[in-house]
Design goal:
2 helices, alpha+beta, single chain, 8 strands, four-stranded antiparallel beta sheet, 2 domains, about 150 residues
Length: about 150
Amino acid sequence: MATRSEAIALSRQEVDRVTRPSAAPRRLVPVVLALFALAVSALPAAAAGDEYAFAAPPQTDLNRIYRIDRYTGEVSACQYAVKQGTIGVTLCYPAGEGAGAKPGGGEFALVPSNHAREGGIFRVDRRTGAVSVCYVASEHVVCTPPAN
């Protein structure tokens, strides 16, 4: 059986063990900070997934899709084409006259018309209400000047 002084010493050791800061939480700090940094760095990547919008023109005999950078307004297009001896090819048309990035940016979208034979598409700036018509001409996407 322990004497009273031994019991007090054991009690102090127990109190010290319980109240003394452990090294384990201090080792976790860098891990927690690294996980936080990783989570924060993933935020722009998640937002970047919504950088482009896609829409097809209403023309029913055309395998084309338009792509717009939602923030700059730049428009390009791609379409499927048959190529003998292959499964086909994807032809893409870069931005040409009027279809490039707009100075100052905006909040852009593509809107197809209801005209069944229309191969072009409307580019709209949701902030200003400006509208352009974009279509493929001479191996590039071109757009009319914006109007309200």
